[in-house]
Amino acid sequence: MAHSIPSTRIRRTRADVVFDTLNVIFMVLLLVVILYPLWFIVIASVSDSVAVSQGKALLLPYGFHLTAYQKVFSDARIMLGYRNTLFYTLVGTFLNVFFTMMLAYPLSRRDFVGRNVIMGILSVTLFFSGGLIPTYLMYKGLGILNTVWVMIIPGLVSVYNAILMRTFLQGLPFELQEAAMIDGCGNFGMLWRVMMPLSVPILAVMVIYYGVGHWNSYFDALVFLSDGNLKPLSLILREILVTSTSNVSEMKSGGMGESIAEMKRIADALKYAVIIVSTVPMLLLYPMAQKHFAKGVMLGAIKG
């Protein structure tokens, strides 16, 4: 006759219950602190600016309207900015990840002679740079100034990201590489057939890091691009916001009272609408890569 094995239940003490309750409360409060600013920007972008300034639109929209979004998307430059930013983000991120992998893989190989010397040289660039003026002159001499490549080539490889990827690759069993070499696999075959399939988590981290960097790129475009047809979305949104604000100032000087109030209301809502328009694509991208992102960061931080 079979005897059933009694189930063992872990007895929770009163201290455990108190700790769990406080932990849940803390996490809920932390979630509210993180999400509420984003929610406030959303409701402020569709609310009356006067109500927002008076604190009436704290949880729900007040005086719902889409004037700010209509003004943003009625500007033909918006689609141009999206097109340019998508090009910089997609092409730039692909090239970034490719060349970062090409740098990190040989540096992760224990049989690569001189890898520590190369890492030392690369690490110097983390602390020192040539400065803005020499960088500008260098780009001009290379002929990439005021071209799409000035937004891609200079930041082709981030040393920090290369170190992160190298650390991840070093954590993979070296026996896999030895087995591949015994089977006659060359260096490139080993990289694409063995290492790449195992590196999905760190590749997701690289895509997020580089992608967000390209999407939010602002200063480089401001300094190195003068052609309006090449400007990214962030710079175009800034110009729209500056134009709207300057129009309000001009109307103030002209003494147009009612028009000033209307334009100021639109300009205030426009600030929030611009934030939403520029951040929503990245907010949609992150959840899709979040699982690999968290795993890649943790695995890449185990060894130094």
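[next item in queue]
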Amino acid sequence: MTVIESSKIGTIGVGEGTTAVFRQMMQHLGIDEMAFLAATGATIKYGIRHRDWRRLGHQYDGPIDDPHRVVAKPGTANFLDEYLVSQGRSVGESHLFQRLIDGQRAPYARVSGKLIAAGPFHHAFHFDQALAGQFLRGQSKAVRIIDDQVAGLRRDPETGEIRALQMEGGQQVEGDFFVDCSGFRRRLISEMGAGWQSYRDVLPVNRAMPFWLDIAEGEEIAPVTLAWAQKSGWLWKIPTQGRYGCGYVYSDVHCTPDQAKAEIEAALGHAIEPRNDIKIDAGRLDRGWIQNCVALGLSSSFLEPLEATSIHGTIVQLMLLSSLLPDPAQRGRDAYNAAAAGQVDDFRDFIRLHYVSERRDSAFWQDVAASHPQAVTDRLAQWAGRVPGPQDFKP
């Protein structure tokens, strides 16, 4: 395997949150969790804390464990949720992870020098993606790395498949199968003819302003990602052991970058130093796998970072790809493209559901309330008389 990456292209590196599938991947690959935590400055994540989304002053957590997996099911598959809702109580009450969040507890106890898991569920992590990348790179074997950038593709004139990559340094890199992980550049897959399907008519934010915050001496690090709704979007706050990776995801239809910066400084009570101001074109490729080239991660889709869908989606893409590569014929590519597209479309609708809110305190929230897409209004009608359950979603 050969990896081509350029030391001239930097990374944003403002903190990442994963889902539980990242820990499952580490266990599958035999990666030591404690070594990962130590080397990357990562912290434990049990879920996402949503502040001011429903209304100002309202807060709820989204713990990522599923208590229905470890209890008998006398009726429906989500009977614990149904019971708690019927009693006017939070569905979080049945979650082990909600207890660990509230108590600021670790996922392990130390008994006679051994670590004993608090429960059977996979937790997630917060980390600096650059440090995590370095660690995972050190775990990789038999990988050749070329420090260069792709200047062009040499393709078979009959089949259209890629035969080699022409590098800026003059080298040609031949191969049988090519994975495009070039992020927003989409360096390979765009030249293969992939089109972009935008979600700008569904997702209301289109810019992101990342920044860092210091962790105060002696401050307790909450085991959650904070998603804090603001007047023109929302703020993320992801704790690592050394600092908070933060950012404001906002709509430039409703405020300028300078106004966004001022809004966050007013919310936090102090100045910030933005590291960038990134335009977001949320959407996905119409085809992520064309001929002998497949786009993974940000090369294939991009959504606002709510609910940590990016790393999760990339890992699921890898799982799908590894299951289908023994049959890289057209039927395998079609199956992959349909599954990958369906996943991102589901993420899009899931994210948009967060914007169903009682808030009308700014033009942004007023416009959002007046523009919910049909997929959202259909769900709201479906769930007006019953609690959502597994039967409402494709696996």
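[queue empty]
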